[in-house]
Amino acid sequence: MAMKRSVNVKFSEMRVGIIVGVSFLLGILAIVTYGKVHEIFSKQVHLTVLFKDVRGLTVGAPVRLAGITSGFVKEIHLVQIKGERFVQVGLRLDATRLPDLSEEATARIETQGLMGIKFVELIPGDLSKGPLNPAIPIMGSGTQTLESVLGKGNHLVKSLNALSFELNRLIGGLNSGEGTIGSLVTSKSLYQDLDASAKNLNAITQTMRTGSGTIPQLMNSPEMARRLSRSIDHLDQLLQAANDPKGTFGELSHDPDMAKSLAQSLASLNTLLRNLANGKGVAGELLNNEQMTAKFNATLDRVNDLLKDMKDHPHRYFTVEVHVF
C-alpha cells in the first residue's frame, strides 16, 4: 500500500510539473507575441505620443515604423495640457530605430484587418530637419478606424448598387422583348429570319466554293486566275505607257506645251459647237433654221433632178463634134 501511495504521489508531482512547464512556454510565447521580449534582450527608448482619441488602442499593441514592427505600447493615460484633454500613449521603441525619426515625426493609429486590431504607425518625417528628441511628445494625427475605411467605400457601394439596378433593368427589357437583342430573345419570327439569313449565307458560300459562276471560277479556276493576272499586267503596261514621257499620253502629262495646245484645241472645238448650237454660220443655220433647212433640201432635190435628167438625156447638154484631118 505504501508503495502504491508513493507511486501516486510521484505521478501527481509529475503532472504538476508538466502543467507548470506548459504554462511557462505559453507565457514566453505571449511575451514574444506582444513584442515585450525586446524589453528584456534589447535596449529600448521611451517615446510619448499625444492623441485626441485612441479608438480602442490597448497596452501591448505593436508599434511600427515604415511598416516594420519596432516596439510596443507601454502605457496609456488621460492627461490635461493647458486645459485641453489628451490621451498620452507611452511607447517602447527599439533604440536602433530612433535615428530614423526626425523632429517632424508624427504618429497615427491604424487598423489591421477586419478584426479591427489597432497598432501605432510612426511617420518618420523629413530627416533633414534634424533628429527627434525623445523627451518631446510626438503629436498624433487622425485615427484610421475600420469605420472610416469602410466609409470610404460608400461611393463604391452606391456605384455597385446603381450598376446592379441598370443590369436588372437591362435584363428585364431583354425578357420583355425590348430592343433588337430583346426581340432576338423573345421573338420567334425574328429568330427564324436570322436563322434563314444564316442558311442563305451558308448556301452562297457553298456556291462560291463549288459553283460554276464567275466568282467561283475566280476563286477556284487556275485558268481564270491566270487570265485575270494577264489582264492586270496589260493594264499595268498601259498605265506605264501613259506615264512614259515619250508617248502621247506621257507628253500630255509631262509636256506643258502639248497640254497647252490640247487645251486650245478643246477651247476652239467648244467655241465651234457653241456657235452651231446658237445657229451661227451656214452650218448653224442648217442645224437650227427650219426655213434654211427646207431651202437646202429643195436645192438638193433640184440638183438630183438635174443630174438624173443629164443622165437620161445627155444630148440636151453635151454636143460631140468629130473632125477628120
TrEMBL record:
It comes from Leptospirillum ferrooxidans (strain C2-3). InterPro entries: Mce/MlaD, MlaD_Phospholipid_Transporter. This is Mce/MlaD domain-containing protein. It comes from the Bacteria. It holds the Pfam family MlaD. Residues 44-125 form the Mce/MlaD domain.
